[in-house]
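Lab notebook: predicted structure, single chain.

Context: the supervisor wants predicted structures on file for every construct in the current expression panel, including those that have not yet been purified. This is the next one on the list. No modifications to the sequence; it matches the entry in the shared construct table.
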Amino acid sequence: MTASLKNSPRLLITLGDVAGIGPEIVVKAWPHLVQFSRPAVVGDPNWLRWAARLVQSPVAVVEASSPLDITSETGRITCVRGSEQDLREVAPGQLSAAAGKAAYDFLCTAIASVRHGEADAIVTLPLHKEGLRAAGLPYPGHTEILAEKAGVREYGMMLYARWGGPLTPNPFHPKGEGRDGGLGVVHVTLHMSLHDVFQHITTSAVLEKIRLLDAVLRRLSEHAPRLAVAALNPHASDGGLFGDEERLVIGPAVQQAQQEGVSVIGPLPSDTLFVRAARGEFDGIVAMYHDQGHIPMKLLSGLTAVNITLGLPIVRTSVAHGTAYDIAGKGIADHRPLVEAARVAAQLVRTKCN
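Prediction complete. Output recorded below exactly as produced.
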């Protein structure tokens, strides 16, 4: 191992739902991950061995008792067994309570390891929400588990995409290049029904997300981030014709953030806001609900957007796609989103330490 890699971030990759595409993605991504980090997997070594056979990789899977035993080599995956669940009866592409419980265990093991100083960051592969439910776990996803285990109440989910790179070319440049940098979108509300969204959009909630977004983008950008806040109603309510949330709720949060020195404007109609951001006008957007942020970001960046949990005392990133049961076990899943999520995690670790 070179001297530079000895000082590189120690990343724990949680395997997620083993019935999904997580195991095969790890195996495919491994030669790339060891080029810029010291990765280890928190998961099930037998499923990694199965994935290596599936994709015909010569990589060896070595079980370790602690992330401190990490040996980052192209041909060697270090795996910490993160659950006592018996996963021998789990089948690729099929919902399983055992796989759901194991995915939860993998995450909890990784959280404890990072909090004990055994690693620097967590990069998660997808779990299945119905798998969690089948296991009797009342969580809608990774974000809520992380917030509970970390003991934080102010947190957010951000999708982040780097523009100008090979994975995420800027769609508004004639050659697909355009402005280098990135776009981050944080959500005021997340995993809840649209019926419940309105009661959770408050001035304090919007202001909290503006602050979180500004803080993380300062670590990912080379300049003070330029933020915009999306309106809730069509056309930002057209002066109150379609609602008054913009004037009574969202606008005051923007004004307060401006008084605190944040470069932010809004609320702006979301149908044009993302076009303006992709053209380089903004570095970050505060969306009011899940699909308002997710749909345009995934249209702009494909599946290479990175999920970052804001407000935690630890660094956590994730791929922005799901378990993909429909292609699990076929060996065709794209590993590049995992590589991108790991790169962003490594960058956040470095800027956190600086």
